[in-house]
Design a protein that fits this description.
alpha+beta; 7-stranded antiparallel beta sheet
Length: 419
């Protein structure tokens, strides 16, 4: 009997040992699986920092930062041919980034923005930009390790574009995981090569029909939406020429049921405004068909800019919310040019100094002069990119003179700091 008890004891101990081993193996496999599927997401989400609190009375949303780990599936997105609509982009994001566990939306927008390029006395190239909208939460999105053949970048994301509620702070694990989609929705940014880009409403289309989005249909080309075009510029391009060549290879499909134009600039001083408008030989000049638009590139050495600065210098350039290319013939009158007052003010300030301004603070002062709080909205953020030094000066919600509301970033140190 004693021997039988001893045998049962040994068998029981062995069974428990085997069971524990199986549990450990399963746990390890699950851990490896979770790590493979969610490692970059978990690391990125864990880095989210609440930089500034919201102030509803002043129409100020919260400000966050996030350091994105990994390549966020962008190479896969490009390989599949991009996306021809916000719906397709959302499908890609939910299946690859959020693993189908949560919903991502792209909010509509009515964005009025301003930007310009300028040079300092030390020949640093600056790209300054206001993002004008209304109260919304934003995320400073820093991509430090995007992968081979891609560049590190700093960008700003309106979290409304990835479906985060504008009326409350970021909360809950699911919403935080959704923020991993932020790299697909940059409104402006700069990469480690000193190439910068930004997006602006262009309000194209007949007044009676409302804004008509660009929606090109060349079946021989892959596709991208407004913000994914900017992401690809930041990740894959080192200068303006590379960016333009990339853009020519794709159909553009404007996001958020809006029409946009874009500005890009690089460390050499070269800049360009990218617009999708009717072809020069088009019989219909009303611009009411987004499928018939073609890319038009206006460099800062072209046309209206040709007389600025010296013959051997790159010229300064500026943009607001109307089509710049041949705008005197595109519009019936100046009253039709949205943001024309801001456009002229920026021009006047740059013209006074021939496009040479003291430093980033001087650039920020011009942005302050065309900010939007007095006009009923709010400038959600103002940013000055130094394309030469690869540094950033960033201000939230028009708090230009408020302590703790200005941040700086340097690609050399990789650190985001309170100025």
């Amino acid at each position: 009997m004693a021997k039988l008890k001893e045998l049962w004891k040994k068998l029981w101990f062995r069974a428990v040992s085997i069971t524990l081993a199986v549990i450990i193996v399963i746990a390890a496999v699950l851990g490896i699986t979770v790590g493979c599927l969610w490692g970059d997401v978990i690391s990125s989400v864990s880095s989210i920092t609440h930089l500034q609190a919201r102030n509803d009375e002043r129409k100020e949303g919260s400000v966050y930062s996030m350091k994105v780990k990994g390549g966020f599936y962008l190479d896969k997105f490009v390989k599949r041919g991009g996306a021809s609509s916000d719906k397709e982009l959302i499908g890609f994001i939910t299946s690859n980034i959020t693993k189908g566990l949560m919903k991502v939306d792209i909010g509509e927008s009515d964005v009025n923005c301003s930007a310009f390029t300028a040079t300092t006395p030390d020949n640093d190239i600056l790209f300054a930009r206001n993002y004008d909208f209304d109260k919304t939460n934003v995320c400073i999105t820093i991509c430090n390790s995007p992968g081979k053949g891609r560049y590190k970048s700093f960008s700003t994301v309106d979290m409304n574009y990835i479906g985060i509620d504008t009326e409350s702070d970021l909360s809950g694990l699911m919403n935080k995981i959704t923020c991993f989609a932020a790299p697909y929705a940059p409104l402006d940014g700069m990469n480690e090569k000193g190439l910068s880009c930004a997006i602006f409403m262009s309000y194209q289309g007949d007044d009676d029909k409302g804004t008509v989005a660009t929606d090109q249909k060349d079946e021989s080309k892959p596709n991208f939406t407004s913000t994914t075009m900017q992401r690809m510029i930041l990740d894959y391009c080192a200068d303006v020429d590379e960016a333009v060549e990339l853009i020519k290879k794709y159909n553009l499909h404007d996001s958020a049921k809006s029409s946009f134009h874009y500005m890009i600039a690089d460390a050499s001083g070269k800049s360009a405004i990218l617009e999708w408008i009717p072809a020069e030989n088009a019989t219909d000049k009303t611009d009411n068909d987004g499928a018939k638009r073609v890319l038009s590139v206006t460099y800062n050495t072209d046309g209206m800019y040709a007389g600025l600065r010296g013959e051997d210098d790159f010229k300064y350039q500026w943009i607001t919310n109307f089509i710049v290319k041949d705008h005197n013939s595109y519009y019936e009158s100046d009253e039709k040019k949205f943001g024309y007052d801001r456009y002229n003010l920026i021009h006047d300030r740059l013209d006074e100094v021939n496009g040479v301004i003291a430093d980033e603070s001087a650039a920020m002062d011009i942005l302050k002069q065309v900010s939007r709080r007095q006009a009923g909205g709010v400038t959600v953020h103002s940013v000055v990119f130094n394309l030469t030094d690869k540094t950033v000066r960033w201000v939230a919600n028009e708090n230009y003179d408020k302590a703790g509301a200005t941040y700086t970033y340097s690609f050399k140190t990789g650190k985001l700091k309170v100025a």
